[in-house]
Amino acid sequence: MPDEVGQHYVRFHELARTLRQQCPWDRQQDHQSLRRYLIEETYEVVDAIDRLDADDPATDAALVEELGDLLYQIEFHATIAEQQGRFDITDVTSGVHDKLVARHPHVFSEVEATDADQVVANWETRKRAEKGRSSVFDGVPPALPALSYADKVQRRAATVGFDWPDVGGALPKIAEESAELVDAATSGDERRIEDELGDLLFAVVNVARHLGVDSEVALRKAAKKFQDRFTDVEELAAERGAPLDGSQDLDELDALWNEVKVGSARARQERPFVLTPLTEAEGTEVTDE
Questions:
Q1: What span, in angstroms and rounded, lies between the C-alpha atoms of 281 and 117?
Q2: Is 195 exposed, middle or buried, given 0-12, 13-18 or 19+ CB atoms closer than 10 A?
Q3: What's the CATH architecture for 146-210?
């Protein structure tokens, strides 16, 4: 099996080099021009993961394809760097291999770790030593999506004890920040409104983290549910000869919405909207930075 993996990867690696040499589009690219494609392919992997169905093995095909597309982006960047004489894919693979070995002393040496929390503690200690970091926030990418960024900085602060012991401490902050937002909205101060809204969102992420829920996933599911239901509203209005064109008032739209919610075929067949808590391992702060 290892030989087969190696053979397939060498074949893939050589293809990336050939395309870089012979394809006009590939030759024009650099790290910056490929940035958007790396982001797009990453989100397409996430979308394929969200569409996985344990009862439908056919859904694996989409994930296989998207993982391949993402892997090509990594190989593409390494090929560009190789041509520039900076580094190549062996530097990438050997670097991550050695880093993972060093950060898993409970697997490859005599250090003991009896649970996931101890693994995280060991990981963070070694990472800080490797990077020479003075702050728990060093290495947090500022370009992360806002919800993920909030979650990560909260987790980093929690590694040194700055955290509520459980969700009971975090939940009241939502009511507190909501009241402050209402007060700010009444004042009409735009900067204050923005600040208080940010504080409220930050508090919601904190509650989600304590409940073991990925706030990014939860919000995406809520948005998708809204989109599906409003699509049904559009279809229902069109079936009745009054397609949505902006002329309907809110009461009419709300009536259609409620009808769809309780009576449409899609609403009846819709799976319960259940947020699946993260496992202990998924909910801990471990990154390869």
A1: 9
A2: middle
A3: Orthogonal Bundle (1.10)
Kindly report the CA angle at 119 between 116 and 124, in degrees rounded to 5?
A: 130
Please identify every stretch of the chain with a pLDDT value under 50, giving residue numbers as ranges: 266-268, 273-276, 279-282
CA count, 13 A, side-chain hemisphere, 287? 14
Mark residue 286 as left, alpha or beta (left: phi above 0; alpha: psi -120 to 50; beta: remaining): beta
The CA distance from 202 to 154, in Å, is 9
Could you state, in order of their start, the residue ranges of all structural domains in the chain? 2-94, 103-134, 146-210, 215-269
Go through the chain and tell me how many residues it has.
289
Reported pTM: 0.62
Domain spanning 2-94: CATH 3.90.215.10: no
